[in-house]
Design brief:
By secondary structure, the protein is mainly alpha-helical. The chain is built from six helices and no strands. α3 crosses α4 and α3 runs antiparallel to α5.
Length: about 120
């Protein structure tokens, strides 16, 4: 995946590794699929970061509000469960918009790229 970001050509061996990791039957269209996966991931995590930042831009913390937003968006999308708050996210139990953002990120990351792409194509 890093080769895409660096603009390098993907070798046959790398294509076969991508094919196996994405459980695809052929190597045709793998580069396009991998690019879609990267774009989709960056889009959702970026959108999550922006939406969390809009809620946390005035937050008093040891970390910058943008870093907190980025960290929690990536953590939620990857279903990691990490938080930089001492009480996790307990202080936001009844905060509707933050909960919706986390729910969408967790479900989107958990469902998987191929399922989401299939849903979007229909």
């Amino acid at each position: 995946m890093f080769a895409f970001l660096l603009g390098k050509k993907i070798t046959l061996r790398q294509r076969l590794i991508i094919q196996e990791s994405l459980n695809q039957f052929s190597i045709g269209g793998l580069v396009r699929l991998a690019k879609h996966i990267l774009l989709f991931t960056f889009f959702l995590e970026g959108l999550g970061t922006i939406l969390l930042y809009l809620n946390w831009h005035n937050l008093e913390s040891n970390h910058s509000p943008f870093f907190l937003s980025l960290f929690h968006a990536v953590s939620a999308f990857c279903n990691a469960g990490f938080s930089l708050f001492s009480d996790s996210l307990e202080q936001y139990t009844f905060h509707f918009s933050i909960n919706i953002i986390f729910i969408i990120l967790i479900i989107s990351g958990g469902i998987g790229f191929l399922v989401l792409i299939e849903i979007l194509e229909r």
